């Protein structure tokens, strides 16, 4: 009788979510903290992300980062906003800053892969996918999202797989 109870407990533990939902999308466990970050500037930036007001995200996250330069989540969202406004150099620099702070930041790796796709560099996007594959215990949202975007890119650009 003890064995079925133990199996039930183990299966429930595996099904329990390990992280909170990502704020702003693209993030995993490290992106769950933005919802808990009570800084008004950061919150305003995340609200701008939800509205897809990328210029406002840049203003808010840039202001926040001046006070809190060690926040990988803010750097990631700043890079995301720069990328979506076409400022790829600024985007790449922001992702680099995020990854210096937290080399395992899944959201930064996903968005960096998307930036490489935007630049037409499928090989580097696939490298970010490989990093995400190693970072995710099981498949994670960031891995699945980037994999799908690489697949979509290949279909629309008719690019063959390099692996």
* Strand tally: 0
Q: Tally the structural domains.
A: 1
Identify the CATH homologous superfamily: Tetratricopeptide repeat domain
CATH-assigned fold name? Serine Threonine Protein Phosphatase 5, Tetratricopeptide repeat
- From the spread of the alpha carbons, the general shape counts as globular
Q: How far from one another are the termini?
A: 49 Å
Please state the structural category: mainly alpha
User: What's the CATH C level?
Assistant: Mainly Alpha
Summary of the model, kept short:
The chain has one domain (17-157): Serine Threonine Protein Phosphatase 5, Tetratricopeptide repeat, CATH 1.25.40.
In words, what does this structure look like?
This protein has a single domain, classed as Alpha Horseshoe (Serine Threonine Protein Phosphatase 5, Tetratricopeptide repeat), CATH 1.25.40.10. 68% of the residues lie in helices and 0% in strands. The chain is built from 8 helices and no strands. The protein has helices at 2-15, 40-51, 54-67, 72-84, 88-101, 106-118, 122-135, 141-157. The chain is globular, with a radius of gyration of 18 Å.
For this entry, give a set of tags.
163 residues; mainly alpha; disordered N terminus; TPR_rpt; globular; Tetratricopeptide repeat protein; Serine Threonine Protein Phosphatase 5, Tetratricopeptide repeat; 8 helices; signal; TPR-like_helical_dom_sf; TPR repeat
